[in-house]
Amino acid sequence: QVQLVESGGDLVQPGGSLTLSCTASPSLSEFYPMGWYRQIPGKERELVATITRGGARNYIASVRGRFTIFSDNAKNTVYLQMNNLISDDTAVYYCHNIGGSSWGQGTQVTVSS
Predict the structure, then answer these.
(1) pLDDT grade, residue 88 (50/70/90)?
(2) Nearest to 113 by CA among 34, 16, 1
(3) What is the pLDDT of residues 49-66, one digit of tens each?
(4) Is the pLDDT of residue 30 over 90?
(5) DSSP the chain
(6) Edge-to-edge order in the sheet of strand 57-59
(7) Is the pLDDT of residue 2 over 90?
(8) How many CA atoms lie within 13 A of 73 on its CB side?
């Protein structure tokens, strides 16, 4: 079972950028596909972006063109680069090995002026 640790969340102004990191141990390469999810209090957790071992990526419509998911197997890390952030992006962001049972603790992203 993989252990996942997210980092990189912060308070940022609208229009700003953040890059989230999710480090997997002991290894990332055997746990694809990987996904980034987000959750607002009182709402269900939402899948935001996915990446496969072969590098295929998918995004929900609301973040397409603003967010980029990528990974570095040598660093056992999956990233979520977020540009042009808006208030609706405010949430706790989690990474997850899709089809598995592991979740990280989450990292808070707050978009506010």
Answers:
(1) very high
(2) 16
(3) 999 999 999 999 999 999
(4) no
(5) --EEEEE---EE-TT--EEEEEEEES-SGGG-SEEEEEE-TTS--EEEEEE-TT--EEE-TTTBTTEEEEEEGGGTEEEEEE-S--GGG-EEEEEEETTS--B---EEEEE--
(6) 11-12, 107-111, 91-97, 34-39, 46-51, 57-59
(7) no
(8) 10
